[in-house]
Hints:
The protein is of the alpha/beta class. It has helices at about 10-15, 20-30, 40-50, 60-70, 90-95, 140-150, 205-215, 235-245, 250-265, 295-305, 335-340, 355-365, and strands at about 55-60, 80-85, 100-105, 125-135, 155-160, 165-170, 170, 180-185, 195-200, 220, 225, 270-275, 280, 290, 345. It has 12 helices and 15 strands.
Amino acid sequence: MTTFYPYLDLKLKYLDLQVEIDAAIQRTLSSGWYLLGKEVAQFEKAYADYIGVKYCVGVANGLDAIKLALLAIGIEPGDEVIIPANTYIATAIAVSSVGGVPILVEPKPGTYNIDPERIEEQITSKTKAILVVHLYGQPAHMKPILKLAKKYHLKVVEDNAQAHGARVDGRVTGGIGDIAANSFYPGKNLGAFGDAGAVTTNSKELADKVRQLANYGQQKKYIFRYKGMNSRLDEIHAAVLSAKLPHLNQWNTERRRLANMYLTELANLDGLQLPQIEEETEHVWHIFPILVENRDELQKSLAEQGIETMIHYPVPMHFQEAYSEWAHLQGKLPITEKIHRQELSLPLYAGMSEAHQAKVIQILKTLFPHI
Ligand SMILES: *Cc1c(COP(=O)(O)O)cnc(C)c1O
């Protein structure tokens, strides 16, 4: 019988920390206080310190974190927000759901992150912000993006859902632009046991606005400044995240070690394209993406040998029914379309065994000839 090797196993790191995590949950349950309390305040402080920003506001999930960040910087109906064409759809939905118009920009081949050289041509009098995504755990090309934002007086919002702890030019992602959105969806590098998210920023004004908007727009008890929403981080999730956060760097180191092993062992295989890392960036490898021509076939043959893989993402946003207004872009974003056709994510997670990775490498080496 073939052994089954999963793409991801979230249970392993829970079992490693079971004592701390169970104690955190028990402490919260026994406290009798379940929302907007000490646990959230403590996690917010710890995460702000981790990112190196002054403020962190816990919210319900990553999508809300992006929406709240956009509302805080003042995005209004009709405002244009530049986003990468190659991202998870949450990035676009956040813009649309606050009434903004997402403008798609192609990525740089290799790094898969928004190409700064293609941003300027999309800037109009309606552009208000650039929403960058640190995709797959690799920081976006921030230096030229910050320069452009300055030149055109645009805000920079970071979608830091996939890159907790990544660095570029010595700065931690989530603390580089004006404001950033973080997701703690269970499978993210730092994940809760359910939905959770946070907004990070150095601006007191923006942090205050996010905090109010996320709690019905309440400024003081029963005094409402905005027509806000309910997007609060639960105490129980905050307690779990506080127990896990001290281990995040170690987990990211493990991810980096696994990624380096793939990069070394799979180098020079004909027909298999490895991700490209920019020199000044410290990647946290949320995902290890390769590109191959017969992606679906490869996924199938790996599955037959017990290796589960994923695709991030199989259908580009401008091919989705939800964004039928972008149908005219089909065929016009060739880099994004090629990534979606050819991308395959190899298993990579904190706690992944050497035997598991050795098996993946061995199969790929038999399938792709060495150059
Ligand atoms: C996961 C993710 C989100 C959304 O986070 P949720 O917590 O699932 O709402 C947003 N953007 C990107 C790039 C993501 O990977």
